[in-house]
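Re: [ENG-882] Designed sequences occasionally contain unexpected residues at chain ends

Forwarding the minimal case from QA. Structure tokens:
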């Protein structure tokens, strides 16, 4: 922001938000956080700054492919 950015976005695949991390993140100038739902979502003041993305479809498809003996790697090929 000091160099002219108007918005800053942050993404984390497995956000372990312990202690006062939620308060620090909420007080930061970051506009929005994109997190996966691999951990329970935090509630409170940050809920307006967080977008949770479900990994359930990807995990479900990986499990299906493992069970059927097809390639899991192809999920990430494109």
């Amino acid at each position: 922001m000091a160099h002219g950015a108007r918005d800053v976005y942050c993404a984390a695949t497995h956000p372990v938000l312990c202690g006062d991390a939620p308060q620090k993140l909420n007080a930061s100038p970051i506009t929005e956080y994109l997190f996966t739902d691999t951990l329970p979502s935090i509630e409170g003041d940050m809920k307006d700054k967080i977008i949770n993305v479900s990994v359930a479809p990807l995990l479900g498809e990986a499990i299906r492919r493992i069970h059927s003996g097809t390639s899991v790697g192809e999920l990430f090929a494109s």
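QA comment: On inspection the terminal residues look reasonable. DSSP finds two helices and three strands in the chain. Proposing we downgrade this to a documentation issue.
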